[in-house]
Amino acid sequence: MKQKPHIHIVCSDQTRNGKSLVVRLLADVFTLQGEEPFILDLDAPTGNVCEFYRDAEVFDIMTVPGQVELFDWLLSNPTRDYILDVPARHLDRLFTAMDDIGFMDGARDAGFDVVVFYVVEINEKSLGQARFIHDNFSIDRFIAIRREDTDIALRKFDSFTAYSDISKQGEIVLPVLSPGLAEYIEKPPFSFAAFIKGQTDKLTQEQQLELAGFLEKVVDNIQKIKQRIDIGNLQSVKWS
Q: How far apart (Å, rounded) are the C-alpha atoms in residues 26 and 225?
């Protein structure tokens, strides 16, 4: 059975916390699996991930015409997956606009599943915003994403409870990279897909091992989430 296409919305209420890194990880892993997702960057006018993906499209959702253009683009071709890179400053605007026009229902009618990948900080504000998105929009699946160095913050009962509630459908934990490697992979033309294929560029052997360990953990998380989504799609089929 052909799998349903997906709209993957990668977002956060905070800046500089690895959101666009997650976009690239998802794009490269899905591409290696032959899925060819199309990337839509909402950080107009220049975009944020366009330097890594030449065919990515940039949309300006600050205006109603820009929002209409984005939604029409998504719903006009329900035969492929999309990945949306949503800047923190546009988070409320995007979900409010989607809610106003009933986009989630329209996407579902067109055959899409909508999956939100939310990069959350372990503090009251960020957890609260993530919970609001989780609870108030008809999303098919909500995936929580956090950095591995937030383990200590999760020892607080309130934080642990809040995070547990939003991560029931899946989570991705991002290991912390050394400063030099973290800086290197943030610069184009670095590609996770190319590294996985064996192109190590100028990385030292130590950095190669570190990045391989990072990808082993993250790709494993992504694969588990994808399996859950695929199984969910099978369970939703009405067999005649």
A: 11
**Helix (H) or strand (E) segment spanning residue 230:** helix 205-235
Name the burial class of residue 18, with classes exposed (0-12), middle (13-18) and buried (19+) by CB atoms within 10 angstroms of its CB: buried
- Predicted TM-score (pTM) of this structure: 0.94
Number of domains forming the structure of the chain: 1
- Please check the confidence at residue 235 and state whether its pLDDT lies above 60: no
- d(Cα 226, Cα 218) in Å, to the nearest integer? 12
Q: CATH number of the domain at 108, please.
A: 3.40.50.300
Per the CB < 8 A criterion, the answer to whether 40 and 83 are in contact is: yes
> SS3 of 141, please?
strand
The average pLDDT across 130-136 equals 97
Look at residue 113 and tell me if it is in a domain. yes
Residue 37 domain-assigned (yes or no): yes
Contact in structure between 147 and 114 (CB atoms under 8 Å) = no
Residue 229 placed within a domain: yes
In this structure, the strands spanning 113-119 and 141-147 are parallel
Please write the tens of the pLDDT for every residue from 156-168: 999 999 999 999 9
CB 127 within 8 A of CB 146: no
E strand or H helix at 211: helix 205-235
Categorize the per-residue pLDDT at 230 as very low, low, confident or very high, splitting at 50, 70 and 90: confident
Q: Residue 105 corresponds to which amino acid?
A: D
* Residue 160 identity (one-letter amino acid): F
Range of the domain at 213: 6-235
Distance CA 92, CA 29 (A): 28
